[in-house]
């Protein structure tokens, strides 16, 4: 049995070790001339959220703290990059919409075209990070890093994850390793691809995953470590151009479930949807109760994409439906919310279903 006085000495020694370790410089300070120039574009979310108390980790208010305060809360940023901040808008990301996406995409492309910008970090609500990340993956016209970051705890919470997530995102956006990797999402020390990443838990810090295809790498000890990269066309190689667009075609998602009927589908078509993503059960299966309405919609010129609510795997062409005969498109591995984004952008280029199917096998 160790006497308590000894435990006290051990604890204080441990505390001293902790203080020494934690006061270690976050990164080897380099002369300002060699630091990358990283723009931080703030859009809101929990990373900018405030809670009633330090123990409020749900039911807080998102999108309250401005970009300058976010940067000031992490003084270590200036040791790893020359950062500048810009508040593009300030929303909880469940309110994200096409107008915000177009504004953000145009600003990103304008900044990346500047020689004095090496990379961009976008602070964003976690609810729709996966959609914004894929949208930008398809419309950013540069190989320079674009990193989207959020937080699962508000800035006022004990052990808020926002500051370290922002610090890691800035390192990643300023790193050579991230060039040409497509739009990246970086939270919880992990690097995921914008095409595949999805939110898998309503509240935990490790919520952003790429369930089967896997993360791309880690942010560890102030450095980006990549182990894989996407095989799909993205960013600088994209054919999509939103520079002249003020709106995007309407595309809705019909969720598949037992005992469904075509009420929702018919309402979307009546509302003017140019495309429908059917989030089917299993391998994108179509219930008999809905199939005639899908065929009727197609005859009216609405593009139909068969996706799956399952979340992983390939939706195979001519598997659960005769896509060739029905002139439907399949989503490949894109989940419904991502398939919707690609279909929206595809419809800005063509209504040819064969050309759109090629896009789903390319991006
Ligand atoms: N409402 C959430 C959002 O803005 C908060 C968050 O997790 O960022 O996406």
What are the SSEs and their pairings?
Elements: H1 4-22, E1 37-44, H2 67-72, H3 77-80, E2 82-91, H4 98-112, E3 119-123, H5 129-139, E4 146-149, H6 162-173, E5 184-187, E6 190-193, E7 198-199, E8 208-209, E9 217-220, E10 223-226, E11 251-255, H7 263-270, E12 275-280, H8 291-299, E13 303-308, H9 323-326, E14 329-330, H10 336-346, H11 353-362
Helix pairs in contact: 5-10
Indicate the proportion of strand residues.
15-25%
Rounded average pLDDT? 91
> Would you state the CATH class of the largest domain?
Alpha Beta
What is the share of helical residues? Answer: 25-40%
What order do the SSEs take from the amino end to the carboxyl end, as H and E?
Answer: HEHHEHEHEHEEEEEEEHEHEHEHH
Rg over CA atoms, rounded to whole Å, is 23 Å
What descriptors fit this protein?
single chain; 363 residues; alpha/beta; Rossmann fold; 2 domains; 8-stranded mixed beta sheet; 4-stranded parallel beta sheet; 11 helices; globular; binds D-aspartic acid
Could you explain the architecture of this structure?
By secondary structure, the protein is α/β, with parallel strands linked by helices. It has two domains: 7-237, 3-Layer(aba) Sandwich (Rossmann fold), CATH 3.40.50.1170; 251-362, Rossmann fold (3-Layer(aba) Sandwich), CATH 3.40.50.40. It is 30% helix and 18% strand. The protein has eleven helices and 14 strands. The protein has helices at 4-22, 67-72, 77-80, 98-112, 129-139, 162-173, 263-270, 291-299, 323-326, 336-346, 353-362; strands spanning 37-44, 82-91, 119-123, 146-149, 184-187, 190-193, 198-199, 208-209, 217-220, 223-226, 251-255, 275-280, 303-308, 329-330. The strands form three sheets. It has an eight-stranded mixed β-sheet, sandwiched between helices. A four-stranded parallel β-sheet has the order 11-12-13-14, with helices on both faces. It has a two-stranded antiparallel sheet with strand order 7-8. Helix 5 (129-139) packs parallel to helix 10 (336-346). It is globular, with a radius of gyration of 23 Å. The structure holds D-aspartic acid (DAS).
């Amino acid at each position: 049995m160790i006497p308590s006085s000894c435990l006290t000495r051990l604890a204080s020694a441990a505390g001293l070790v902790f203080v020494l370790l934690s006061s270690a410089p976050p990164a080897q300070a380099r002369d300002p001339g060699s630091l990358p120039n990283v723009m931080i574009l703030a859009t809101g979310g929990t990373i900018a959220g405030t809670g009633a108390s330090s123990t409020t980790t749900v039911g807080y208010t998102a999108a309250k703290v401005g970009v300058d305060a976010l940067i000031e809360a992490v003084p270590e940023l200036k040791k790893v990059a020359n950062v500048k901040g810009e508040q593009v808008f300030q929303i909880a990301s469940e309110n994200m919409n096409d107008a915000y996406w177009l504004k953000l995409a145009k600003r990103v492309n304008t900044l990346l075209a500047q020689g004095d910008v090496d990379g961009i970090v976008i602070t964003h609500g976690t609810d729709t990070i996966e959609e914004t990340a894929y949208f930008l993956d398809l419309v950013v016209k540069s190989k320079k890093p674009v990193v989207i970051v959020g937080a699962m705890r508000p800035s006022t919470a004990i052990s808020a994850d926002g500051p370290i997530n922002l610090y890691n995102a800035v390192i990643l956006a300023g790193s050579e390793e991230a060039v040409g990797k497509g739009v990246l999402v970086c939270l919880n020390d992990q690097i995921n691809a914008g095409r595949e990443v999805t939110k898998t838990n309503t509240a935990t810090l490790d919520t952003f995953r790429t369930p089967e295809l896997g993360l791309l790498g880690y942010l560890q000890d102030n450095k980006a470590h990549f182990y894989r990269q996407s095989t799909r066309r993205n960013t600088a190689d994209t054919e999509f151009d939103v520079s002249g667009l003020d709106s995007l075609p309407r595309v809705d998602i019909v969720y598949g479930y037992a005992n469904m009927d075509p009420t929702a589908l018919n309402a979307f078509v009546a509302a003017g949807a140019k495309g429908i993503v059917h989030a089917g059960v299993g391998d994108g299966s179509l219930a008999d109760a809905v199939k005639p309405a899908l065929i009727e919609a197609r005859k009216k010129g609405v593009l139909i994409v068969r996706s799956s609510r399952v979340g992983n795997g390939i939706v195979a062409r001519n598997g659960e439906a005769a896509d060739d005969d029905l002139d439907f498109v399949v989503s490949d591995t894109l989940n419904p919310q991502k398939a919707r984004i690609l279909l929206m952008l595809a419809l800005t280029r063509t209504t040819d279903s064969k050309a759109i199917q090629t896009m789903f096998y390319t991006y």
